[in-house]
Structure formats: C-alpha cells, structure tokens
Structure to design on (76 residues):
C-alpha cells in the first residue's frame, strides 16, 4: 500500500526535477493558486509536506505512543 508519506516524497522529487534540481526554485514556484497564467495541482505539496497536517488517526497514534512512553518512564 502506498502511504501519504511516499506520495509526498514522489511529489517532492517530481518538483525538484521540474525545477532542475533547485530546492530554492521549488520553494519559490509561482504556479500556486495566485498564479496568473497557469496553476499546478501539486503546488501545495511541493515542499514534501501535507499542508493540512497529520490525520486525526495519526495524531491519536502519537498521543497513545506518548502516554505509553510516559508510563514506561515512571515505572523505570
Ligand atoms: S508545483 Fe508544479 S510547477 Fe511547481 S515545481 Fe512542482 S511540479 Fe513544478
């Protein structure tokens, strides 16, 4: 199964190819929603991060792990 992280990595790689390998040009890409000529559907994801942040399930999993580690530390 392809994960969201893998998809974001593929988009990041594609954007780097699009900009000739320049990280700065990817960051400054002008094909965002404010573009006058043409927009790119990958723009919001070009930095390899989800602009909406982690899903609720991922946040809950992180909290669960944190509580588990806290309990383990207090018992040690
Ligand atoms: S968002 Fe689109 S136009 Fe901009 S670098 Fe990525 S692929 Fe290229």
């Amino acid at each position: 199964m392809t994960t969201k992280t893998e998809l974001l990595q593929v988009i990041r790689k594609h954007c780097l190819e699009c900009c000739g390998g320049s990280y700065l040009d990817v960051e400054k890409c002008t094909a965002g929603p404010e573009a006058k000529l043409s927009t790119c559907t990958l723009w919001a994801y070009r930095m390899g991060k989800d602009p909406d942040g982690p899903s609720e399930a991922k946040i809950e999993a992180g909290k669960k792990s944190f509580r588990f580690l806290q309990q383990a530390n207090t018992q040690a």
Q: What stands out?
A: The chain has one domain: 4-75. Helices lie at 4-18, 23-27, 56-75.
